[in-house]
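We include the entry.

. . .
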Amino acid sequence: MERSGVQKLARVLRLFVLLVFILNLLVLPLVPGLVGLLLDGGPDEVLQTLRILFHVNGTEGMEFHPLGYFAGALVAVWTDGTTAVTTLFILLYGICTAVLLWQARRVLDTILEGNPFQLANARYLKRASISCWVISGAALVRTILWICEEGNLGPIFTYNTLFVPVFLMGGLLFLVMSALFRQAAEMKEDQDLTI
């Protein structure tokens, strides 16, 4: 049977979603070490570490043990309260993103089957909306904690604050789509019973 244009697009999107999901899972365990590297010397330290790791531009005489350095950064992250909280929030964002990607993959699978109007898709989209709201709520809590720590309103002007309305609206959109898929699935079921 010939695949429709929507199914061809769903196949490509499924591939991208699966790739990003795998990369997300690979990066999640590295988050504490990366936070430690960033806080240890900032972005320049991360770039220098990557240059040494991949032998780029004049790093011949330098010796680098990535596991040892990463382990040191990992320990340093959990010994400071501020960096530990930052790391926990970033890990929470990553986990919720993985849930979002997994739900998207499941919806795309039903599109590839040629039967997208299922009650299961309504559940998948509802889970995606909950994940969005968790990210939005965590970003709000992190912004408030950051404002309290800094003692000024500077943290309002960061990317973290942008997560609050973006993921709140994303969650609402997924919830509306969930209701639409649920209603379409019920109508399809009624129609199948009348025939």
